[in-house]
Amino acid sequence: MAKQKPQMNAMMRQVQQMQSDMLAAQEALASEMIEATSGGGMVKAVVSGSGELREVIISPEVVDPEDIEMLQDLVVAAVGEALREAEARKSAALGGATGGLDLDKFGLGGLFG
């Protein structure tokens, strides 16, 4: 029984360190801006590393009142690509903070954000 207490303390320290690393990674991600474009750069979407849409920039040349659907498709494509890149970076950053431990496997995927 005496051996279990030091092991439990060590495990708790590891969990606390992981939590600290996760918070630091989340803060770094929130300040990171990710850009993606579509239509040859005619539409640009900017999202934070945490996945928050921050800006959509549309070149005036792509605005055609006769073809609104094309503009909508370009916006969706740019935003979608920016969000996918943000998610990839988030997975990489948070995966490093957990030491590669797959929290989803334990039902804890949403534990840190």
TrEMBL record:
The UniProt record lists the keyword Cell wall biogenesis/degradation: no
UniProt xrefs under InterPro entries: YbaB-like_sf, YbaB/EbfC
A GO CC annotation given for this chain: cytosol
Record PANTHER family: NUCLEOID-ASSOCIATED PROTEIN YBAB
Example of a GO MF term: DNA binding
Keywords: DNA-binding
Native source organism of the sequence: freshwater metagenome
Gene3D superfamilies, per the entry: Nucleoid-associated protein YbaB-like domain
Name of protein: Unannotated protein
Signal peptide span: none
